Amino acid sequence: MLAAALAGGMMDRTVLAARPRTDKIHHGERELRRLSLRVLSGSSLALAVQENPRTVADGVYTDAQAMRGAAVYDGECSGCHRGDLGGATGPPLREQRFARDFAGKDLKTLFTKIATTMPRNAPASLGDNVYLDIVAHVLKENGFPAGPQELAADALEGIRVLPGKPKPPPPVGDFSYVEVVGCLTAGPQRTWMLTRASEPVAVPAASTRPSTEAATATPLGTQTFHLLDAMAYAPDGHRGHKMYVRGLLIKLPGDQRMTISSFEMVAPTCPE
Question: pTM for the complete prediction?
Fold first, then answer.
């Protein structure tokens, strides 16, 4: 019995002696689990930031910046890309072409493309701040909203480009400034008409005409316009030609009239 008691006491002491060491092991395991959870949480947060970067839909430029960009674009870029960004001798900067070239990339890609290739005759000549303004204008014309802060160069790499959502063209109504393509035809009493003309498209009053290629590609239509001041443009030499006309639209019952601010031949014939 004494031996049993002694053995039991020795076992109790052994258990008691081993228990703190076991507790330390369990405590260490718990700390390791906590550390692992913190690491995993941090990794998940970093991954979430990488998977959800800032985009051009988050208001990355201001309206004032886009207005400055529009003024420069009209003077330096619209001759190649058109005032509406539709493309001429230069590629379009909107819709499918914009999405194909830039969607999914960071905004620095768009900035670098514009800054290193435009204007065509003097690339990289306008200064970074001016090119940032032009990028803001391109974003606005692609339907992305303005925000409270101007677009800055150091933010470009952290902003992802999305496919554009171009603004709808302005409605055409009485006294709209429009452009059309049609056939120049002599009317009664020394009047001149643009017949088989395309649908009028509203344009800014200060916009530049599209390239010859773009105007040539515009199909004829079914509209007729009475050109009020055609005599000032020596129309006899363009009888039967396909013409580009830009000016003020005046809509009367049964009659559509246009004043002329731009009058240029597109092709020497009007194909049937």
Answer: 0.52
